[in-house]
Amino acid sequence: MFYCRENELNKLNKRYKDGKFECIVIYGRRRVGKTALINEFCRGKKNIFFSALDTTASENLKTLSKAIYESKNPDTDAACAPEFRSYDDAFAEIGRMAKDQRMIFVIDEYPYLAKSDPSVSSRLQHLIDRQWSDGSLFLILCGSSMSFMEYQVLGYESPLYGRRTAQLKIEPLTYLETAVFHPDLSMEDNALIYGITGGIPHYINKLGVRDDLDDALLENLFDPSGYLFEEPENLLKQELREPGVYNSIITAIAEGASKLNEIATKTRIATGPCSKYLKVLTELGIIRKDTPVTEKPGKRTIYMIKDNFFRFWYRFVPRNITMIGSGRIKQVYETAVKKQFSDYMELVFEAMCRQYLIRYAQNLPLTLTDIGQWWGTDAKRRRQVQIDIVGIAAEKDEYLIGSCKYKKEPVGVDELNLLKEYAEVFGKGRKYYFYIFSKGGFTSGLREREKRGEVTLLTLEDIYDAE
């Protein structure tokens, strides 16, 4: 089944119907569903689908030759496909094929092709400028290397700069979109699936949830034979030259190190090289740099694991590896693993609530232009303060201040009072709208405060009923 990319698909189909030359750049992290989107778009349309490999230019030319042959001879074995002598000849043939018919030409994993033949971007630029732009070819350049696609395809110094007619950055699914895969499961189970997979369609599918989420986790993640068990290690090996070093950095962050010097100390890597490794992991979308929402990156910047699947895996698999390897994980799953899910979901729930506010909430009292966390020092009480949600509004000096609790117990008036204290630390003399999100609901006392207009209260059910 094809889920949740209707907006992107509609944009592609609209451009396809126009009949003009297109150069569409599609990019996003691995496993996010780029190729599935392109395959769905190409369904029923004349296309040449070339998936580049991390190999030599000559091997990629063979693969491209087969793709062209398969498009022209769909019922013939491509093993006997003649090989073009050069990329120029292959591209010229594609141009001829597109002269009399609408033709989609997909180069999937374009960074691999450009790596194997650095001249390919210049060749495509020449063809677009001299021949293809006047025709009806629908060119798609797709890649998973975010930095390559942003700097060497879309960037100012790229030969292809200015040639693209549109770009689509494919993002992970939201918590509501993730729930579409399992409409019969409870909201709590769907929230946990989002917390495990981060809205990555490939991981949602490989998790293989049918009727019971616990069974799926035990079978497909907490088992050495399960596909997801080795996924982080495989992804690091696939993307990086020093997977062991990157593994140690992710482990350090998972264990609580958040500042550059803390990570460097824990991994015994000098701060200079450590900073470069962190930059690479950030570009891959595995970690992220966080700064208080109202401030520029600086001394208070911290590092966190952005990829939910990596965060979940590093939280639960290494510490239980002996039990997993011995086949006895079921014996400790309920006590050593499952009981910690609520604590693990705290950060996930915060992200879900921010998604709700920025994407799904109706009739907010202010127009949000940015949203994030904020932390600082309460000088009066001599303590650190962290606010789960700070929404910045277009209106001057108006803010949405929010708290998120993923516990079974109902939240009471104390939480609102604490939130108001934190708001004073954030800044006096401003207008605040207070929001509290709670999985376990709210006490009658706090509901009374809501009736007075002091706060807006939202449950897990409320944010799942947003659409």
What does this protein look like?
- This protein has 467 residues and is α/β, with parallel strands linked by helices.
- The chain folds into 3 domains: 6-169, 3-Layer(aba) Sandwich (Rossmann fold), CATH 3.40.50.300; 176-344, Orthogonal Bundle (Arc Repressor Mutant, subunit A); 359-464, Trna Endonuclease, Chain: A, domain 1 (3-Layer(aba) Sandwich).
- It is built from 22 helices and 12 strands.
- The strands form 3 sheets. The protein has a 5-stranded parallel sheet, sandwiched between helices. Strands 8-9-10-11-12 form a 5-stranded mixed sheet, sandwiched between helices.
- The chain starts with 5 loop residues before the first helix and ends with a helix.
List the defining traits of the structure above:
single chain; 467 residues; alpha/beta; Rossmann fold; Trna Endonuclease, Chain: A, domain 1; 3 domains; five-stranded parallel sheet; 22 helices; 12 strands
CATH architecture of the largest domain: Orthogonal Bundle
According to CATH, the homologous superfamily of the largest domain is Winged helix-like DNA-binding domain superfamily/Winged helix DNA-binding domain
Quaternary structure annotation: single chain
Low-pLDDT residue spans: none
Helical content band? 40-55%
**Spatial arrangement of strands, main beta sheet:** 2-3-4-1-5
**How many strands, which pairing sense, and closed or not: the largest β-sheet?**
5 strands, parallel
Q: How many strands? A: 12
